[in-house]
Amino acid sequence: MVSQLxxxxxxxxxxxxxxxxxxxxxxxxxxxxxxxADSAVAEDVSAPLPVETQVLERINEYPVERTYTGEIVxxxxxxxxFEQAGTLVDVLVDEGDSVLAGAPLARLDIRSLQAQRQQLExxxxxxxxxxxxxxxxPRQEDIxxxxxxxxxxxxxxxxxxxxxxxxxxxxxxxxxxxxxRDEAAFSADALASRLSQAQSQLDELKAGTRVxxxxxxxxxxxxxxxxxxxxxxxxxxxxxxxxxxxQVSLRFVDEGVVVSPGQSIMRxxxxxxxxxxxxxxxxxxSGITNGSRQxxxxxxxxxxxxxxxxxxxxxxxxxxxxxxxxxxxDGQPTLGATAxxxxxxxxxxTGYWVPTSALAAGERGLWSAYVLNPPEDSATDNVFxxxxxxxxxxxxxxxxxxxxxxxxxxEQVITSGTHRLVPGQLVQN
Length: 429
Known about the structure:
With 429 residues, the chain is an alpha+beta fold. It contains six helices and 24 strands.
């Protein structure tokens, strides 16, 4: 049925009475459903929230992991050079090459040294021949020749004396001049001197070689041989040999360069035994012993090693003791990498260990924890009121924290659902 009504303006309004009838019937049903929903919500709000808790235990100290840094270095590292100056003619290795102990690495030009050695070799042969001759003594042939020379000079001297005597008579008679007489006398005196010298040589040959002569010649041979040994040393120093098994990390010069004594040619590092050198405060170093096993972290990778030394001198800059950890040969890290040593230290501080899930954001950037308090009017077991306690986080370790604050030993701290809690709220444990 449709009715028409007129409003004050004279316009007609049409009302569908069937729709009004349906709305009237539905209103009680909607009201009843809303009442039941509100009742359910109220019931849920008033129900205690189930939570998990942990009983607080007071701790007077706790272990703290402290990290100390250092560097991975080679156990042995040498900047190699020549002990003498010279022209570099050969560099036999390149950077990155692995070498064995005793392998030649570089050479100098040795042509001038070789020429000097040849000259000394000739001098030594000559001196040795003379020494052997002196040791054997004079030959019979030499003695016979010396006797013949003495006899010949003696005959010449006898003849010269006769000529001198005749010229003296002739001079006395005025037959010759004074100059002619003196000439004969001078010739006789010269022959007498030569005869005396020849006789001395003969006597020396018959007596044999003197000990002093043999010793002097022997000393000369030794001197030449010493010069040869020194030259051989110089020749050996013209080559750089690897002092240990290692790897060439740097090469400073190339062929053709005139190098000076001690100038670095290359750097050789021992790659089979690396060390971690880490500075540790003396208080912490006192707890480390030689031979103890340690784990060193390098770029997130762990390497096992053994403490081989605690250097006695304190580093002036860092005031730390250098701990030397020799790493195992397996899986060696990169030279120069940062090494980290993690040590445990006992921190004397009173507080409590709680899970990180027990913390809730507090006021002014602080943290809070919630504990259980028995309600005054509750007749239900295991129902508690929530109480908030402000805490200070002292140390974090994985999934737990060490805190201090208004907590008491034996209290039960809530460890779950802290984001849903407010002080005074009822919870069930």
